[in-house]
Amino acid sequence: MDSWQVIRRAAWITRRYPTLWPFGFLVVLIGGAAAYPQLFLVVLRWSLPVESSTASLSLPGGSLAAVLALAAWLGAAAVASYLSEGAMVRMVGEIERSGLASIEQGVRAAWGCLTAVLRIALLTGLPVGIVFAQCSAPAALPFLWPSPEASAITEVICSLWPMAALVTLPLAAAMNLPYEFILRRCLLEGRPAGAAIREGPRLLRRSLGRAAPLWLTLLGAGLAAGLLLTLLNLLGLFAVIRVASTLWAAWHSLAAATLSALPCFLLLVVAFSFLHGLYLVFYSAAWTVAYHAVTESEEAATPLPTLVLLRA
After folding, report:
1. CA 110-111-115 angle, 5° bins
2. Which of 182, 47, 62 lies closest to 118, judged by CA?
3. Which end of the chain is more exposed for a tag (fewer CB within 10 A), N or C?
4. Domain range annotation of the chain
5. How confident is the model over 58-84, as pLDDT tens digits?
6. Burial class (CB in 10 A: 0-12, 13-18, 19+), 126
7. CA distance 104 to 161
8. CB-based contacts of 100-109 (< 8 A; 24+ apart in sequence)
9. Cα–Cα dist 250/79, whole Å
10. Radius of gyration for the chain, computed over Cα atoms and rounded to the nearest angstrom
11. pTM for the predicted model, two decimal places
């Protein structure tokens, strides 16, 4: 399995089959829609009373309902995101087998394996979740003990989050490699979640010398693409802010300037979300092509059983 051959094949599939594009776009939109409501938790954290004389937990009105609604929204977003990811894997698998891709068949197959995919994502993401929970748990201290001391301790600990990110991000990147093999073992081979979790790492261990260069190449490509998209996004955002400020200075109306610049901002969001979605399609296709190459090479290397003729 040559990494550059896999990348060229994945790029050809991404360009040749635009039926895959909506799923990558959906994953990006769903991920953004799941991330933005979490800002509510930051607002809620700073709205808590911290007077030591009244050290009792009193949440703002409707906060519990908002937290429950946020949890339901995040759950629905996770289901839709994994469904779209599973559909991409199944469709690329069908392309590798027969050269055909059906959106309906991919969605139906991904829906049938959705429970197994969620279990795989939960179990493979457990180490990262434990580390992240240990780093984030102090942020909940003001909820449990609303006092100036708790708020000060939380601010000190939250200032150390960049150091926690240095631990969490490499761990997440390392766990991503077995996750890709486990996921495709389940979706492409029809294996249950438990069997896929056992067999995926074994397959990866036998082909680590071929899979590691691809993983490093895709990791570097992802970092480069992320930095480029971030830079272009910031430049576009500055341009939109410049247009809005110019209109505000000319019209002396913040509402009119905002409404006039809003279409440019939405166009910017859609354009960069589409580019990000294309990269996710390419990334998923690359790992599916690599998985097919690994399994085909193992099948070719498996010796055929020999027949022993017994002489009567």
Report:
1. 100
2. 182
3. C
4. 3-295
5. 445 555 676 677 778 777 877 888 888
6. exposed
7. 43
8. 101/17, 101/19, 101/20, 103/19, 103/22, 106/23, 107/83, 109/187
9. 46
10. 24
11. 0.75
State the number of CA atoms in the 13 A half-sphere of 254 facing the CB.
0
Tell which residue, 263, 58, 86, has the closest CA to residue 185. Answer: 86
The answer to whether the CB of 240 falls within 8 A of the CB of 248 is no
Residue 102 token pair:
């059906």
**The predicted structure's pLDDT at residue 150:** 53
CA-CA distance, 155 to 45, in Å (whole number)? Answer: 11
Structure tokens at 129: 């979740």
CA 138 to CA 164: how far, in whole Å? 13
Q: Please, what is the end-to-end C-alpha distance for the chain in angstroms?
A: 47
Answer yes or no: are the C-beta atoms of 25 and 16 closer than 8 Å: no
Separation CA 59–CA 56 (nearest Å): 10
